[in-house]
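Annex B, item 7. Sequence and structure tokens for protein A, then protein B.
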Amino acid sequence: MSIVTVLQCHRNPAMDPGPLSEIYKDLGDKVAEETICRALEDLAVRLNRLQDIRAIAGFEELVRQSNRMAAVAQGIGLTEVATAARHVATCAAQKNGVALEATMCRLDRGFDLAISQVWDFRDF
């Protein structure tokens, strides 16, 4: 007999507004937006790189790159993205392809939702 597990997809990934508030407070609106845009662009590039590395089964490189992505995400308060990236690193370190695929999808969805949250935060 098989067991079916239903996974809940959160529509609002966890976000810590503290780092964004500090960036805006320390740098001012214009420079803060430029800094945050660069960080989001860096995260998008890293996510694409992770997908490319996954395609060639470069598990060791996946660990390194996903840990770097987690650090950048944590720096701007995207805690769900950072957590998912660390989980990708764990799956890659274990060379667990099935878990890696699922976790990469979670990271991708979380990143897409996080972008909206960052810009919604900016409007406050």
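Protein B:
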Amino acid sequence: MLLSVAVWSGATDATRDLFDLISAMIALPVVAYSGQPFFQNAWRALRVKRLNMDVPISLAIILAAAMSLFETLQGGAHAYFDAALCSRFSCSLVATWITARAVLRAQPRRN
């Protein structure tokens, strides 16, 4: 998100394009690597013709990254690499919290 500051501050033309390209070089590998659990679960669900929560999450992450890359390569004004990464981080945070809560509830209580 730090690289998006150049865009937020009003940078235009070559400066904006350069920062968008740097953001793309950082964000796309991170999205591809950190999104693997969501992508794998979504793919498994789609293979058996089912939908689960990972399908729309994966779709949103892929579309945000793909549209941002398209806009960057076309010299467009809008790139949302930070949004793709933030949505991925938020989903991971919530999934971790839900898993930890379920594990704690499943443990027997000690008196």
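Comment on protein B: Residues 81-106 form the longest helix (26 residues).
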